[in-house]
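Researcher: Next entry in the queue.
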Amino acid sequence: MIKILADKNILDLDLYLRDVIVPNEYSIHYIDDEFITNESLADYEILLIRSTTKINESLLVNSNIKFIGSATAGINHIDTNYLTSNNIYWDYAPGCNSSAVTHYVLAAVAQLLEINKLNYDSKIGIIGYGNIGKKVSYYLKLLGFEVFINDPLIDDNNLVDLNTVLRCDLISLHIPFTERGKYKTHNLINENELALLNNKILINTSRGGIVNEKALLAQDTICYIADVWENEPTPSKQIVDKALISTPHIAGYSKEGKINGTKMIVAALVKYFEEIKITNPFLFKDPSLRINNNFTLNKNLIEPMPLYFYNKSLDIKSLSDEMKFSFKKTNSKNISKIFAKLRQDHPLRNDFDSIDL
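Model: Structure for this entry, 357 residues:
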């Protein structure tokens, strides 16, 4: 029997496991992420986590872990080189919360329209054309905006260079955080790029460290909207106060996003089980019952204007006011606790494209 250790906050994990794997083939123990330590891994082969658990040598050394599954869209918290070099299987859930983040960006656009910092003649630039970038672009075009997209990793004649995007009125970032390689994104928006953004709007829902916050603090005319920060969970009080909208890394928090993450790591776990079944057979249920994660657009959303998303479904202005107020009244030593509490207390919302209008 395979023994699984799992973060207790992975939504409906046991429900989806039982859908595809005969229950007597595995046992699962749930644990709070703060108690996932090298010692706690001793009796387990499978570890299922969220982004709050850092996967590295110090956590895994001398353990029996053979598979890591992260119910998250990113892998910044995972030392994939260490896992690969030690023959530890790993997988994650890219795109699981793409609709939730798209929801957040549309709410931000709606807020900007409401306060007259944006209009329907404004040009919008998107950096990154993956799961989220594609959805953001799709909806913004439906709503009548002219959209320009940059992604050097995609060969598409319809995409443009970075400087063209930076000339837009609003730029939204949808890229992973990388520190190496030809197209590294660490400090992608640095002094030179920020100099081109005077009197423009920048939205960052990707990762802290993509925007150089120290350089941003020196700019007086950039309207910054951010859900992610350098040095999380201890972001700078200065940058939180400076941003027009500041939220505690909750853009991707939705019921559907979390369930998608669960489904995807369950599918990855099934794949792992199947690859090792020659020496360790498993009993799977009818393959027709297995989950899928195909995205389908809610066609009802073609007509509504962005103010619908802001006024009815995601009030990021109130979330920002709460974060700014909480940061101002606390000292720097307690910032990480405040940040964590704001994230924890954010209610699970529904993705806008799951709503029947």
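Model: Confidence is low (pLDDT under 50) at residues 278-306.
Researcher: Noted, moving on.
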